[in-house]
Amino acid sequence: MSRVNTVLGPIPTEELGLVAVHEHIGYGMPGSELDTTWWKTPEQRYAETVPKLRRFHEYGGGTFVDATGICNGRDVDYYRSLSAKTGVHIVASTGFVGGDTALPFFARASVEYLAEHFVHEITVGIGDTGGRAGIIKVGVSRGGRMTDLDKRIYRAAARAALTTGVGILTHLAVDAENAIAIFNEEGLPLDRVLFGHVDDGVNADKTRDTWIADQGGRIGFDTFGYETELPDPPFWARPRKERLDHFLRFISGEGRIRQVLASADANCSPLGWPGVRGHTVNYLFEDLIPDLRAAGLDEAAIKTIFVDNPADFLSIKN
Amino acid sequence: MTGAQTAENATVNTVLGPVPAQELGVVSIHEALLSVVPGAEYAFDITLDRAEIFATLAEKLQDFRRHGGGTIVDSTGMFHGRDVRLYEALSRTTGVHIVASTGQGPEEMLGGYFLTPQTDPPTPWPAEKFADLFAKEVTEGMVVPRVERRGAAGLVATAASLAGMTATDESLFRGAARAALTTGVPVSIRYGNDAVRDLRVVLDEKLPAGRVVVGGLDRRDAVAAGAPIKVAALGAYVALDHVGTEDDAHVTDAERAALVAELIEAGHGGRILLSSNATGVAKGHPANEVRYSHVLTAFVPLLKAQGLGDEDVQRILVGNPRDLLSTR
Ligand SMILES: [Zn+2]
């Protein structure tokens, strides 16, 4: 029996459908909750979020993976209500977006404690919400080199992934040599790791995507839609065609299409930053999939990228 | 001289609103009610049972009151477990005035929002932004994260890293000083490795020294460096705020009592403050189990043995904190 943890409980992998594998209901750096600049009423949060999820569902979207880690505004009770009301499966993360988003309590914790915490959130639940995490988030801190804390989090994540069978999703795939060394030391097969953000405008040039793929890792082109063509692009934006060409070049490699996942990393309703106007998870349906079809990908290829690969990655392996 | 600096109509911001400064009674200037290491609230093995926390804190506040205490200052700032609504209920129930603080620090205790913001490059927050964040907690109310503002902070509390003040710590200190200047509440600082140097940072912002309390001056390193006398000579308040703690890092209560006598002898009786840095309820770190009443029950007799009269004791426990906490 294959299964995936969603916030409303385990579901069969076969039910995932089309997956947006790296998204956010709402992300905010820890501490942003103290700054009223960003506060929104619950009415506003639902009003910004529900229509996007409903449209995602209407487009044929099945599952929304929320890559918001602990301390970043992750709010599982809220996700549960959104999922129940919109019919979109939502998978929540344990782990951290990066060491620089882990608060002092966790920054001081040992690898053993962090692993225990991740395992608890995957097997017992997140707080007292009843929702379990379906993925482990890790990441590289600002600066592009793994800090000691980043490394402890990666190691703990590897152990929790081995114990529980869930996958690991990374924020950034720079400094991958250090990441892969840790996963190898811990004995975690690299197909349990999705190396994300290989396509972002700041890091794409420094990210060894084909090398990581050669080692067996999965590759996430998951900042689709953060384009320099937007009216007010963020600093990690990239020209639309450049990103698409990068993606097409990558999947043209032998067997590469089985290793690739794609997503938009959009916020439905950002928590601690203004967000990027006009960018939503539905970029996948409104822009990316049409672009891929125009580039000659057939329906089988699209199903591989958005259905089969995420199902294999997300399904609990034990 | 007791009360000489406090105007008749001066008030202090408590969690239940402004209170006439003359009503504070005996004040403990550096304590923690609920103390939570940032992030511990998410830990799988830590529970925050509000009813249980309330009962524990209420018992400790009642004990403080029974021994003559009037006001507890929670100097943990805005990001270490502060729970304004709980403190309102505690104050109403026990009759103890509770003064809550804004501010945060040292750098290590900040969230990534302040240290690695989503900008390119990720420049840490400057003093001016901290000043605005803290000042609004006095003028508009203390934040209950993403829900509402409640009450007004009665002071700005910040701290420097023990290894020495970092650039971000300095921004916190300067921001705290500016917030104090614009709002009229005092600043409470805990220094890193040099009390006088760190005090000078807030004084450099033109904050009068009489609006500043320097905590941790009963640390052995501070006493060895003569920091208590130097801080008082600069005009700031000297907090011997680990009364009841006797360990490698701190002097003993007997040594504290001698230090108080020494400060009075040197003419600084109007600048001494006492507290225990007790943690009513601690989550994610070891508690300091000293009672809030320890100064009253155990330390005042040591002061009397040093030859202090009732007037000296009253000045230290009532007059000095009243002068400091009165908003200007
Ligand atoms: Zn993301």
From TrEMBL, chain A:
<feature type="binding site" description="via carbamate group">
    <location>
        <position position="137"/>
    </location>
    <ligand>
        <name>Zn(2+) 2</name>
    </ligand>
</feature>
<feature type="binding site">
    <location>
        <position position="22"/>
    </location>
    <ligand>
        <name>Zn(2+) 1</name>
    </ligand>
</feature>
<keyword id="KW-0378">Hydrolase</keyword>
<dbReference type="GO" id="GO:0008270">
    <property type="term" value="F:zinc ion binding"/>
</dbReference>
<comment type="similarity">
    <text>Belongs to the metallo-dependent hydrolases superfamily. Phosphotriesterase family.</text>
</comment>
<feature type="binding site" description="via carbamate group">
    <location>
        <position position="137"/>
    </location>
    <ligand>
        <name>Zn(2+) 1</name>
    </ligand>
</feature>
<feature type="modified residue" description="N6-carboxylysine">
    <location>
        <position position="137"/>
    </location>
</feature>
<feature type="binding site">
    <location>
        <position position="24"/>
    </location>
    <ligand>
        <name>Zn(2+) 1</name>
    </ligand>
</feature>
<feature type="binding site">
    <location>
        <position position="197"/>
    </location>
    <ligand>
        <name>Zn(2+) 2</name>
    </ligand>
</feature>
<feature type="binding site">
    <location>
        <position position="265"/>
    </location>
    <ligand>
        <name>Zn(2+) 1</name>
    </ligand>
</feature>
<dbReference type="InterPro" id="IPR001559">
    <property type="entry name" value="Phosphotriesterase"/>
</dbReference>
<protein>
    <submittedName>
        <fullName>Phosphotriesterase-related protein</fullName>
    </submittedName>
</protein>
<dbReference type="InterPro" id="IPR032466">
    <property type="entry name" value="Metal_Hydrolase"/>
</dbReference>
<feature type="binding site">
    <location>
        <position position="171"/>
    </location>
    <ligand>
        <name>Zn(2+) 2</name>
    </ligand>
</feature>
<dbReference type="Pfam" id="PF02126">
    <property type="entry name" value="PTE"/>
</dbReference>
<keyword id="KW-0479">Metal-binding</keyword>
<dbReference type="GO" id="GO:0016787">
    <property type="term" value="F:hydrolase activity"/>
</dbReference>
UniProtKB/TrEMBL annotation, chain B:
<dbReference type="InterPro" id="IPR032466">
    <property type="entry name" value="Metal_Hydrolase"/>
</dbReference>
<dbReference type="GO" id="GO:0008270">
    <property type="term" value="F:zinc ion binding"/>
</dbReference>
<dbReference type="Pfam" id="PF02126">
    <property type="entry name" value="PTE"/>
</dbReference>
<comment type="similarity">
    <text>Belongs to the metallo-dependent hydrolases superfamily. Phosphotriesterase family.</text>
</comment>
<keyword id="KW-0378">Hydrolase</keyword>
<keyword id="KW-0479">Metal-binding</keyword>
<protein>
    <submittedName>
        <fullName>Phosphotriesterase-related protein</fullName>
    </submittedName>
</protein>
<dbReference type="GO" id="GO:0016787">
    <property type="term" value="F:hydrolase activity"/>
</dbReference>
<dbReference type="InterPro" id="IPR001559">
    <property type="entry name" value="Phosphotriesterase"/>
</dbReference>
